[in-house]
Amino acid sequence: MTTIKDSVHDHISVEGVAAALVDTPPVQRLRRVAQLGTVTYVYPSANHTRFEHSLGVYHLADRALDHLRIEGKQAERVRAAAVLHDIGHAPYSHNVEELVYRYTGKYHDDVGDLLDTGPVARTLADHGLNPDAVADLVAGEGQLGQLVSGELDVDRMDYLVRDAHHTGVPYGTIDTGRLVRALSFVDGDLVLGEGNVQTAESLLLARALMNPTVYSHHVARIAKAMLRRATERLLAHDGVDAAELRRMDDYDLRVALRECPATAAYAHRLDRRDLYKRAVWAEMAAVPDEVVDADHEHRRELEREVADAANVDPDAVVLDVPDRPSMPESTSRVLVNGEVRELGAQSTLVSALRTAQRDQWRLGVYAPAESAGRVGDAAVRTLGLDTDDTRVRDVRPGIHATLDEFQ
Amino acid sequence: MTTIKDSVHDHISVEGVAAALVDTPPVQRLRRVAQLGTVTYVYPSANHTRFEHSLGVYHLADRALDHLRIEGKQAERVRAAAVLHDIGHAPYSHNVEELVYRYTGKYHDDVGDLLDTGPVARTLADHGLNPDAVADLVAGEGQLGQLVSGELDVDRMDYLVRDAHHTGVPYGTIDTGRLVRALSFVDGDLVLGEGNVQTAESLLLARALMNPTVYSHHVARIAKAMLRRATERLLAHDGVDAAELRRMDDYDLRVALRECPATAAYAHRLDRRDLYKRAVWAEMAAVPDEVVDADHEHRRELEREVADAANVDPDAVVLDVPDRPSMPESTSRVLVNGEVRELGAQSTLVSALRTAQRDQWRLGVYAPAESAGRVGDAAVRTLGLDTDDTRVRDVRPGIHATLDEFQ
Amino acid sequence: MTTIKDSVHDHISVEGVAAALVDTPPVQRLRRVAQLGTVTYVYPSANHTRFEHSLGVYHLADRALDHLRIEGKQAERVRAAAVLHDIGHAPYSHNVEELVYRYTGKYHDDVGDLLDTGPVARTLADHGLNPDAVADLVAGEGQLGQLVSGELDVDRMDYLVRDAHHTGVPYGTIDTGRLVRALSFVDGDLVLGEGNVQTAESLLLARALMNPTVYSHHVARIAKAMLRRATERLLAHDGVDAAELRRMDDYDLRVALRECPATAAYAHRLDRRDLYKRAVWAEMAAVPDEVVDADHEHRRELEREVADAANVDPDAVVLDVPDRPSMPESTSRVLVNGEVRELGAQSTLVSALRTAQRDQWRLGVYAPAESAGRVGDAAVRTLGLDTDDTRVRDVRPGIHATLDEFQ
Amino acid sequence: MTTIKDSVHDHISVEGVAAALVDTPPVQRLRRVAQLGTVTYVYPSANHTRFEHSLGVYHLADRALDHLRIEGKQAERVRAAAVLHDIGHAPYSHNVEELVYRYTGKYHDDVGDLLDTGPVARTLADHGLNPDAVADLVAGEGQLGQLVSGELDVDRMDYLVRDAHHTGVPYGTIDTGRLVRALSFVDGDLVLGEGNVQTAESLLLARALMNPTVYSHHVARIAKAMLRRATERLLAHDGVDAAELRRMDDYDLRVALRECPATAAYAHRLDRRDLYKRAVWAEMAAVPDEVVDADHEHRRELEREVADAANVDPDAVVLDVPDRPSMPESTSRVLVNGEVRELGAQSTLVSALRTAQRDQWRLGVYAPAESAGRVGDAAVRTLGLDTDDTRVRDVRPGIHATLDEFQ
Question: Last residue of some domain: D188, D216, D249?
């Protein structure tokens, strides 16, 4: 047994298949993939990695299995899935995930192909575990898959507290010890025991507060959009293919962007934190449906139209349209007065989160500081935005501001 | 200048009128008044006092005044009010507040009479401050009164983080540094600056989560109801009058309850944590309006009726009916896109809190373990409870449980 | 199994004999005995109790037993000793311990008589445990007694981190998780495994830093000396005997001191934090051996002589002479290169602690502020102090100062 | 004014020259230089960077200036020095510092040439600051230089708490607030005020505990030695010169090591955490003086001799000989009884640190796991080690172990 010191969970004991998997190259690679990608431009302390997060998820999974009295091969399978759940992440985690998906058809939790070869496959085989069964758990399938990837999963428990610890934003502080102790299976479904409505609410509310403050902070979104744009160019110009990209680490990608002529300018800006500014920042009510729902090609076209209208280089306009909030009614299950109830039906706060997510949605158009004014005006016209609800141009400087100037 | 080490805010520098007031007996008395009263029966670490809380409130007020660039006598008045804001608390803080109010007409923030005499009056006079003006601030009146007692006040900011620190429950962790930095006055009203919708939400959501988990935990409510009942008997039997009670500390009251024959049995139970159990725990929908709205006398009568019906001693039934949730639309003000908006109108989550408060309301009937079954049955009949929504009798033992068994 | 939320160790699971003992009156009484007595006059947040500390000691003992794979009755005995280890404390913990000892011959860890009767005895019997064997463990006897009371015991591990958490002084932050994991038995002795010289050093250094900063801070010592003096008077005048005193809680003692005419003045001062000041504060080199080694009667006599010489009331002089530092060579054992070595021989830092303790020793003479000057002069003459090394009279005000003015 | 959220100091306000300097490329580059280099191989959470550390040092310097009432240009100079103090670091901070020094004659605090050109020079000029004066402060020269680089400097205060926060090792938790408040200038020297012997001790003891546990943990030392060896090869083979190396970031260096054929094997091992093992780990008493004092060339020669004797490839032997501990008597000054005293003379604990440092010194010889046995035997003979005090070969596996197996 090996003990690893973690800044969040203190001591993490690793043994069995988990200890063996931690030593494999695909897991060690996660040491060089930032957990929060470009969020570090807003919160400079947020340099933690997918590696330590994976150890944390393993630790909480192990605690939960212990609590649920699940043992043997079934438990080892979950532990393996916990350690491996993020090996499908491309560099900078979610930042280029969509891009990789467009080219390879794979999201980060589609790891089947990564478990079938090399040291990971050998390690699973040595411990008598079926790689497909582990991949299914990573994808959230089956009863125990809910523990690894579901509404009450240990992944979310770890990242909320870890991101809070490293950004310094206190909203992610949930009671993981209580959450794990409250888990039980009722008729095959993962359920929180009696008296845990608030425990479940706290998990969902923590995410609702961390989202605009950390994960979707406009500075992180701008840098992410620039990184994504640059990476797209890299794939087009450099002979790097998307399958290779998926296996790079942050170091590889960053240096590749610096070295490729088509992307060097973006890399230079990212290195100096010389980021684009918001030319437009619009609430959903201000944005025509056809813009919200535009597909990738359509968005690229709209960017070019805005650039034309503003008479700037196409590289000087980045359109950033988040997906429509898709949060379904929360189906987390909680025991209340002896009955299993869905949290969305039981909790007024949680049911309000669907609307809140829509309230927090923002379309962004970004441009270099010197042309942000022109681009903003052009974008409002070209995209047909309702200017009553649109904020055009970020006029305030303070580029490091974590106290978000407007939203 | 004196520096005091605090477990929450680290170093607190005290000077001027605040330093002088800290040394007065009414403030020193707060060293012996527990901040959370009977909550320590649930969370054994929660032994912090009104004294350290008052220092914390002073500290945050001082930071806010500094940020708002308020100086001179106006600022000293606020600092004085911050130090003094809790000197009107009776022993065990809110636990016997209603009782004191019934006898004296004074709630804890009605401190005018306490500022008019003795060392406090002399200290205020020495610093050229008008006691009535300070009392008004404590009562939340005027523009600066909002800072001391209002929806965004420094009182709440301190108690949430302090109660989280001492109970170990993480939900109260708000970002006080950001809250204080976001404050400004717009047209005479305290307002949070642009980009702080989440900052404001976090404050209200933290309270919404701390409330059922900590402040209204059923074990704390049971002990509080027993303490209140005993203190009521003490006033009736012992020659202690309510004005004296209001000036006692926890030590005086606890020893008085032990020594008075009419209350010694309650004191003995409290000393040994031999608490009554829930005979009934009912959601609002299950309780007839006339029970919810019964006044003090009517409630005592209902208790006696339940005791009769259950054929137990009247002392063996305690009826605990919280006030109807009265949270108005949140009128905290936040700047959004340059406009002052009310948080209740802007934030879906905050507007959901009104309903959530109603969801969390519970009527309790408590009785000694051995008669809880009979009392529960009698109470359901006598009070006319709808048994579909009523939980009768706490059948589980685990009396220290902080993992609330049912709710 | 019951789970208790603790502000230091998060969740503590209690079961078996420990769960039953927690509910007994002698353990519940510890809820009303402050862990650090008068230290709260310096660090206002330090209001934690012997009760939560006892739970913490139980928790660490339980972790250590688990790690050492000790099970069954032997383990239950240690768990019982951990829960009960502090029930022998008089009110205000160590503050009146010497006084109780002079009258009853019992220090706080001499608990044999308390385990022989009442609910504790019945609970031990119910679980088949011998009270004498448990009392031996509390006194540190036998192999497993080292775990409960010894140089590497879980008592110290808990109090250092708990006192740091509650005072806000960071020096007590040791790595309890690593300490517990490093324990093993070698030839019947508790030993820290390879690579843990620093782990052991950290424990001893933490105490060396906490001692002058917290435990022996001069303001805490002054208040303690006043409390001890008052309690001594109470025993002399009031019909309270020392056996009763030993079973009181802080509430009883404080109210008794207020009500007894011979002690009311002291109680009044303590209530208002109107403490004596240092008239003398002298390093060991300045103090004649016969003063350092004076017994109780001799010290009382010296006090009277100083009062005479200063022409003040005998109550206005308190002489506070700590015992000579008695720290033996540290005999904590650590594995180094496969050999069991004594820490005192292995660690230069630890061997320096003996001298450091002597450096930190101070004799105090305390008096009311207005007579501190006269008393100081008289004490220097009467006690024969070497004025080169003596500080006479604390001239600075700042009575709440935690930033110790001189030492 | 810009406010930055930091995980250690919470909110850091940046303005004036500091705000302008933070935006310059040499400071932004520090976002990509790990604070603790290879320590992350032992403590996976230790991914914090020189950038956030520099902000922290600025913050503490600003607090100290405020406390010392130093204002105007003199203060701006110190703030500039604080922000810039680490821009001279090569990739992986101290890991390749010696190597850069051998080639360029510059240690990391020799930054004169970096302040003379480009945006940093322009920014200093814009604020009327002389670059040479700022460089002198970074080098610790002059009265205020002691604040930036000296025994009581804010650099050390920040890194101890920051490294503790990110590794999870609690020993670095010092009281920065009290340290800053205790600073004063007496006759031109930085001195800690009365009553701060323990405050000063805590700073030095914290470093003494963090050193073997974190900074010189054997796994971090092994990885560092491998990185240093590889970088040395890179300079020899690749046309990268030392001046370029000094300006690279961690990303550049890591990718360069992967791409250069002479270093790819080392890079591959570092990427997979497939580290060499200890073949020898020897206390100072076991090592002949001529080995301890061997210069660079001699050490390389000894490595080759060991490889020959063991009949392995020269790349398979890494000799790691730390400098002799050079800690002078601590000259930190503290006020004691009104006199300025040197801490080394006043504090028994601090004077013991010199010896302790020697106790902690270890020579290491590292080799691939499969040849560590042979290399160990050969090294003992070739280097003339005294085998009584030498540990040959790390026989235990647990390669992630933070619970150091032996030392």
Answer: D188
